[in-house]
Inverse folding.
DNA sequence: TCCCTTGTAGAAGGCAAAGTGTACATGTAG
DNA sequence: CTACATGTACACTTTGCCTTCTACAAGGGA
């Protein structure tokens, strides 16, 4: 029976127990964990929070993942894979920003989790560092055609990818208005930052 | 005696025990804690890490601070106060960015700690939120003269302060080259972002 | 119908790190 | 001189939370 005896002794009809196949349940847990972790990051999120979010018991989490860290890695990995699928090889051409917006809109919790939390967590940031390092490389190559080598080139190559991510997250926070306009505005803003970076002051 | 018997039985001259008055020692602990926390944030930094950094024992930390959280708050408070002193009322006029650069250069660990770590830590972000909220307010007011109310105004008002901080931190990471040029470049970049935000697309 | 898998509920274990206590050493103010 | 605040050293307790274990319930395919 799915019935439940409450504190006051009343017996009420509870939700019939939903049974899913392993793969489905796993995905559902990953979805819930992504939402839960996205709120406060790894440390501040207890397994109970995740279990509640997934409407499951803590025990079930351990039937699908070896540990909290394992679950977190699975969450981050999935978010990374989705991001890479959505953005392609990330060549930083004009199609990159619309692709990034699509990816963020398709999985906003995962996106925020990756760049707002995981990027600052010592035990996990390596996963994200590979992405940001690659972006910096690409930006560095592209900017090197206009900006002479030196600290300002390094500065711009670090700043522009970081700025782009901030702009995308701010767009999510603003309610995802008009993706096409967003892409145009962010692209223009990036050009503005580039201009400032290679101006002679 | 400041001498110390080592594992191998040898007795060597140790550092003479440095005794400081309470206020001095407190400041020294805050300095060390700022450095230690700045590396990895609150959770990933143990009291032993801080004690090592300060060249003291854990017990001493408790003579100056009630708890780890108390110490962290003291560190953040001091960083906030220094920041506010260095930037003045933060009116976001043209003097704001040079002031921000001065503040960051004067206390780079504190600056990074505030905006890279504390801003994402649920138990402590309230301290930083007041700063970022105020910046957003100011930006919102200034931008409202050019950008019609709506999601794009909100987007720009969130993004521009965040971008400015990213730019300052990237400048720290690049080795703090030429503060005057940095201010000019960041100001120009901000104008570029503003232009993109209020363009009609 | 039978039985395996998925599921609940909750107690108990274990471990890392915070927090406390005690004993003792020593520079410095009074 | 001497008393106290500052300091070391280190063992101990507490706590929070991950992790494991046990006992039982129930859906659903063979």
């Amino acid at each position: 029976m799915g019935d439940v005896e409450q504190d006051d002794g009343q017996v009420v009809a509870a939700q019939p127990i939903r049974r899913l196949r392993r793969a489905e349940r796993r995905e559902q847990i990953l979805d819930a964990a992504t939402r839960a972790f996205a709120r406060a990051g790894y440390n501040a999120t207890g397994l109970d929070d995740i279990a509640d979010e997934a409407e499951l018991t803590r025990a079930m989490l351990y039937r699908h993942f070896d540990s909290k860290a394992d679950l977190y890695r699975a969450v981050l990995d999935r978010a990374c894979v989705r991001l890479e699928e959505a953005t392609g090889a990330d060549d930083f051409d004009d199609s990159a920003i619309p692709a990034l917006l699509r990816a963020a809109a398709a999985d906003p919790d995962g996106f925020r989790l990756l760049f707002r939390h995981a990027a600052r967590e010592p035990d996990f940031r390596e996963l994200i560092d590979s992405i940001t390092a690659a972006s910096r490389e690409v930006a560095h190559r592209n900017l090197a055609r206009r900006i002479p080598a030196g600290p300002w080139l390094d500065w711009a190559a670090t700043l522009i990818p970081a700025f782009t991510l901030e702009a995308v997250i701010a767009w999510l926070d603003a309610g995802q208005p008009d993706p096409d306009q967003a892409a145009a505005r962010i692209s223009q803003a990036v050009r503005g930052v580039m201009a400032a970076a290679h101006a002679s002051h």
